């Protein structure tokens, strides 16, 4: 239950504030709203075009926090109410974006508009009205590692200097323009530069968050159940869908890319520290990830298969994975980040934050949720005769 006597990292009482959260109806937004309602006295003006993932917080109206959350169905591309909401708030958190890789090379214009053009008014209103901004960028701004350009057998590939991703030192390395995969990363990079420049030239108080593969319940959708049948969500939902339907998990180009996965609930703790500690968070770019949870996509598939068998009680498939080319899976123009390990020095120093949950444990709680939420609906969808 929320308590009024919460203290910041310097021992001062935290004053309740009003937060304009754009993209509050998405995966991260839903977890952040939950946290803010359950553990703080902050008020949320939740802006999104959808509210399914936060409906449990909005209805019934008898929740203890009911007077602290308001939903505003607004498309920020064209709605004059946005500036008024930013003005009403002490802080704006901007999460709105197209952020599924299947869109980057197939809908590059929508991707660039969503991640750059549509964020411009948000930055402008915050700057003009002297409002603080926490903007969600991505670890994809690092692109590929320096080490990926070394010969495959070079011992330097093992040296962290060639792969560890540091906010204030690592370059942003993208592929050629035909590799439209990088449309998202490039748009995010440019909005980061604009926000940084607003800070430098106009005094905007900002924090930029670079999430490294946050995963957990409510991430994306299961195709044909709560999203389009032909849709391609991010890897957690793709693999969950395969496991629920008892199909082999598809490994793009052999599943050799490496990622570090962090549990959404750990990551949300970091965001709350940023919200509550402006003096320590303003002016910073933060990596938020779990360097201890590294796996290749193939290893992730194997672990998810094992965990799902445990939580569902169903035996694994004899052939649990199948290789597929990136061209077949994502289409022309796909490219990939080879390896993503966040350096944690800055977030450790400023906010003392560390992730806690192991990959196995986070997959166990997430796949338990996926099974409970979707297994029955999938069974019914599979059993339904196809209309002739
Ligand atoms: N989940 C991750 O691990 C991760 C990693 C890196 C970066 N990010 C960034 O974090 C942010 C949130 O990611 P998420 O995983 O919650 O994604 P999400 O797709 O679940 O949430 C984004 C939300 O923004 C809303 N939105 C998009 N365009 C909008 C518009 N024009 N007007 C109003 N609402 C709009 C969507 O409806 C959606 O609810 C994004 O900016 C994303 O790039 C997330
Ligand atoms: O989550 C993040 O930190 C960022 O990275 C993601 O990018 P990526 O990790 O490449 O996206 P996923 O869809 O989660 O894919 C991870 C890896 O799994 C592979 N994959 C995906 C799906 C699948 O069915 N099979 C498969 O092998 C992809 O090719 C990729 O190598 C997205 O760009 C963003 O949501 C975000 O900015």
From TrEMBL:
It is found in: Cytoplasm. One of its GO terms (molecular function) is identical protein binding. It catalyses: UDP-alpha-D-glucuronate + H(+) = UDP-alpha-D-xylose + CO2; UDP-alpha-D-glucuronate + H(+) = UDP-alpha-D-apiose + CO2. It is an enzyme of class 4 (lyase). GO terms for biological process: cell wall organization; UDP-D-apiose biosynthetic process. Residues 19-289 form the NAD-dependent epimerase/dehydratase domain. One of its GO terms (cellular component) is cytoplasm. Its cofactor is NAD(+). Pfam families: Epimerase. Belongs to the NAD(P)-dependent epimerase/dehydratase family. PANTHER family: BIFUNCTIONAL POLYMYXIN RESISTANCE PROTEIN ARNA, UDP-D-APIOSE_UDP-D-XYLOSE SYNTHASE 2. This is UDP-glucuronate decarboxylase.
